[in-house]
């Protein structure tokens, strides 16, 4: 849909409270992007499992609310707002989060959605809003800003360019970019290079890779994950209960030996998780698994296979970063993933999300070799700014004709002891120029109000004595 900025029809914001509301929430994504061939409709079952109020450990531990924008009873947008207690406890930044954002390209719809999210977060005592986090930094996060037209992989968001334009219009500023790299498995020589490097390393026998299986495997994976990401930008620890919920969701599509731990002297120090590209398998299912979607999905995942896989998690404990042991562990984990994906008949492998400053992992992935195919961006804005935008759209807000800006009037100038003190006041208009304009006009007013400097009179040259 083109940017018509239409206002035809009133926008109704409906909080999600029932299963029927969750279905409307899911349908909003199809209305917004269903016409885009690069978009993969999310599964209705997964949306219900994740966003039914109080259904997940994350939802029960935090204060969140989903909203659907309706026009004429039909969904045209959606958003999720959350007060994430673990994030606030660690970062103490007063920031709430938004996520699951989908909407048609209509200013009125985006304004109404973010007004609802901002009002919810202000009621919780928060001062900033950041995202997208769907629902946290440990889940889907970021808004795609590079790689448009390429199909998204499993559990990564796809967004057309106007999404970023709308967030910019709403005053959100970029704070962090996360990267996605993709490489061809058939041509990768990473396993051979890693095997050659390990053969020359005397401590290689002490570094062992094992599949994360068994009763204690999930706790070990979660422990290594939390430690490895503990010093990353925006990181928040994952609760074990939440990790169990995510593992159960992935169990149907992820081979058991595709979660791998790296052990150094019998202590787990590194982790890698890999999953087949679910989006490739569900692309034509329109988000529904009944009546025949389940059969198609299982056939494609278990029999015919998919051509692409994704590595969403790869890292080593913080104490091993910058060490030879840590570098060898990460290299061995990625090389092992290449071999497993190749054996499963995969053709392409994507590694995402990686922080833009994570040079060791970025360099390792580039050496696979892989090239940057996608970038997702996290943004932040002030809730006070959202409140001002909301106030300006209310009936009765003073609006003056013409370019009414700030006016500066000098009301008094006094001079004492060679110093000049200028007294002035500011009259506020309804519209505000940009900061540079305001500063320039203020300086001009002050210069005009200053009394002219008394220039010393030049003395005539002395006459020579002759």
UniProtKB/TrEMBL annotation:
The segments labelled Disordered in the record are 429-466
InterPro entries hit by this protein: Acyl_CoA_acyltransferase, BcerS-like
Task: Indicate, by first and last residue, each region the UniProt record lists as having compositional bias (Basic residues).
Answer: 433-458
The record ties this protein, via Gene3D superfamilies, to:
3.40.630.30
SUPFAM superfamilies in the record: Acyl-CoA N-acyltransferases (Nat) (SSF55729)
Q: What is the name listed in the Swiss-Prot or TrEMBL entry for this protein?
A: N-acetyltransferase domain-containing protein
Q: Which organism is it from?
A: Chenggangzhangella methanolivorans
